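In response to the reviewer comment on reproducibility (Comment 2.3), we provide here a single inverse folding case reported in full, input and output, so that an independent group could reproduce the run without further information from us. The structure tokens appear first.
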């Protein structure tokens, strides 16, 4: 199957096939539920990139930059390797089997959601998150590695965290454990 055929299944928005075979999209991309991998190499997606609730097992070929939201939650991924470097909106990797945030975007223009995962550390988390940072229902024991700056709330309910040591500047409220 050629790139044009694949792209017609993934987006209704205009796209460009670059000289290196990667694809830029001037809108949104939706990976189909039954897909087990991202079928073409994306470079930039101006809108949202959604592979939420699919069978995708790796983020290989995910775009390097996403202007909108990036959702890879409810997938069997075990790593954020190949995740975008920058996301203009929300980044959601909740309800996955990831054990680490290594590979997460450096900056997120919206919220960052990594709840219901197997992460044991915040090392690798984005340096800056403009919106909410949500890491609930994880085996976290420490906030070391947390973003330097979170513009919204920082929520870490239902974790083993007992101290705010390691947390950077938080513009909103800090929501602590409600149960352990």
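Designed residues, in position order:
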């Amino acid at each position: 199957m050629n790139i044009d055929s694949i792209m017609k299944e993934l987006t209704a928005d205009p796209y460009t096939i670059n000289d290196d075979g990667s694809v830029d999209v001037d809108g949104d991309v939706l990976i189909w539920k039954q897909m087990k991998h991202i079928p073409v190499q994306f470079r930039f997606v101006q809108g949202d990139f959604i592979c939420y609730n699919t069978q995708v097992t790796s983020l290989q070929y995910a775009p390097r930059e996403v202007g909108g939201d990036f959702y890879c939650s409810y997938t069997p991924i075990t790593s954020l390797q190949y995740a975008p470097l920058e996301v203009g909106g929300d980044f959601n990797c909740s309800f996955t089997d990831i054990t680490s945030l290594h590979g997460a975007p450096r900056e997120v223009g919206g919220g960052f959601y990594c709840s219901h995962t197997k992460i044991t550390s915040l090392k690798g988390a984005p340096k800056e998150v403009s919106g909410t940072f949500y890491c609930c229902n994880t085996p976290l024991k420490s906030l070391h590695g947390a973003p330097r700056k979170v513009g919204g709330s920082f929520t870490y309910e239902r974790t083993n965290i007992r101290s705010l040591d390691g947390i950077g500047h938080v513009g909103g409220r800090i929501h602590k454990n409600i149960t352990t």
